[in-house]
Amino acid sequence: GNSVTQMEGPVTLSEEAFLTINCTYTATGYPSLFWYVQYPGEGLQLLLKATKADDKGSNKGFEATYRKETTSFHLEKGSVQVSDSAVYFCALSASSGYSTLTFGKGTMLLVSP
Amino acid sequence: KAGVTQTPRYLIKTRGQQVTLSCSPISGHRSVSWYQQTPGQGLQFLFEYFSETQRNKGNFPGRFSGRQFSNSRSEMNVSTLELGDSALYLCASSLEPSGGQYNEQFFGPGTRLTVL
Question: Which of A70, A111, B27, B68 has the most CB atoms in a 10 Å sphere around its CB?
Fold first, then answer.
């Protein structure tokens, strides 16, 4: 079946530090890949997505590249801000059939001033 | 355009009771999915509805059920509540249900259910 593995947190960084959150997946075919962010007390917001190999999704300074050869979709940001503190979820959607999302466990990011 | 709305936002029930949660999708979206979020299990898929039909179901007991109305609004019901049902229940809507270019899911704020 489909699965997503992402690094456990919390990840603690100082403001303006470089961020990487690792995500690898197992799926048949060519899934779409997503990063969602959840702020305290809120639902999930789509941060970025990629639908085919070598696609780079980007939004608000965050980037992730769909690497089929390594089945990875690592999230990066060059300079984090305190406001980026949240839980980040990597997810995939199967290439056909249903749009059901399979999520990783989530990684909490804490950014201090 | 208004986002996905869920009601109520918070709910406290006791074991053995039943509960109904409501979700109104983004206008024009016809697919609604439900997820359960707990600290231990993370985010788990419950079910997906499109055009009033359940298209897909996750690995949950029959106590969990749902339905979708002709206006695409959806409800989920949990009967005979157990302590382990305490969770954040998230609803997501999308334009298309499956495999399409526009199947991106937009999430509501969730309903926090506490079972005592």
Answer: B68
